[in-house]
Amino acid sequence: MPGRIWKPTRRDINDLKRHIRKGTVVYTVRENHNKFSGGSTIPWIDKHAYAAHEFTWRSPITGSWMTGHMSVDALFAMSVDGLVYEQPPAGMREIGDPGPQVSGPLGDGYEGILDEAEIGGLWKQVRDGSNPRTRRAPGNWRV
After folding, report:
1. CA 57 to chain centre
2. At 13, which helix (H) or strand (E)?
3. At 10, which helix (H) or strand (E)?
4. For the chain, what percent of residues have pLDDT higher than 70?
5. Nearest-CA neighbor of 72 among 20, 23, 3?
6. Which of 48, 65, 78, 112 has most Cβ atoms within 10 angstroms of its Cβ?
7. What does the pLDDT look like over 49-93, one tens digit per residue?
8. Backbone dihedral region of 128: left (phi > 0), alpha (psi from -120 to 50 degrees) or beta?
């Protein structure tokens, strides 16, 4: 069962305010920015994800339940689709969850074979790296 969905109408907003008790969790849909600075999209980032909001305290001024710094009215205003859900929306990941895995596992039989040029480059990085005897002391900004 998908649970209740409240729309941004006066009737549904008041219904949600009556439904809320301390510890009530509701969900809204957020938009992820999945574009590079050049305007091309990042294909492995979902366009939308949901966020969970738990009502934990009452505003001393208005007396309405608050989730973090937001009231019920603010939840409707910041939701992408304008809806507030009782259950997490189906087919979406939570905004704090890691994204899908882009590359697959390498498998059991994979052997990373390095040629002479790659090994030489790695040794050069080690040689040219920071020498613990000659580097400056931590916390000292002078060069």
Report:
1. 24
2. helix 10-19
3. helix 10-19
4. 83
5. 20
6. 65
7. 999 999 999 999 999 999 999 999 999 998 888 999 999 998 888
8. alpha
Give the strand order in the sheet containing 25-31: 5-6, 84-85, 25-31, 48-54
Rounded distance between C-alpha atoms, residue 102 and residue 137, angstroms? 40
pLDDT tens per residue, range 106-123: 677 777 777 888 888 888
Q: Is the pTM for the entire model greater than 0.85? A: no
Query: What ranges make up the beta strands (E) of 1-143?
Result: 5-6, 25-31, 48-54, 57-58, 65-66, 84-85
- What would the DSSP string read from start to end of 93-131? -BTTS----SS----TT------HHHHHHHHHHHHTS--
Token pair 């729309």: residue: 7
Q: Which amino acid is at 92?
A: M
How far is residue 57's CA from residue 59's CA, in Å, rounded to a whole number? Answer: 7
Res 1: pLDDT: 46
